[in-house]
Specification:
The chain is mainly beta. The protein is built from no helices and 11 strands. The chain has strands at 2-6, 9-11, 17-24, 33-38, 45-50, 56-58, 66-71, 76-81, 90-96, 99-100, 104-108.
Length: 110
């Protein structure tokens, strides 16, 4: 299983980014997908997840600002991040079952 995450970068407060994670080696459409983030010195925390049927869940800290979606034809899961805050600065990881993608750094700073 491979998960290729992309889309991180530097953005000003209030800005937007979209993360993408392309999966291979799994039956993508049959699996829930998740986005996690990790702050320095902290454990990874769940940001958002989406079931195989498309039902989404969010952490309270991002609810209303972030949107997770999936494109089963492209084996890709997305995380649209709007109204970004400096507190969202972290390394973001995508996840399926026991597998993790390489993290992508999101930095929110003026």
């Amino acid at each position: 299983v491979q998960l290729q995450a992309s889309g991180g970068g530097l953005v000003q407060p209030g800005g937007s980014l979209r993360l993408s994670c392309a999966a291979s080696g799994i039956i993508f459409s049959s699996n829930a997908m998740g986005w996690y983030r990790q702050f320095p010195g902290k454990q990874r925390e769940l940001v958002a997840s989406i079931s195989s049927g498309g039902s989404a869940r969010y952490s309270e800290s991002v609810k209303g600002r972030f949107t997770i979606s999936r494109d089963n034809a492209k084996n890709t899961v997305y995380l649209q991040m709007n109204s970004l805050e400096p507190e969202d600065t972290a390394v973001y990881y995508c996840n399926v079952l026991l597998w993790w993608g390489r993290g992508t750094l999101v930095t929110v700073s003026s």
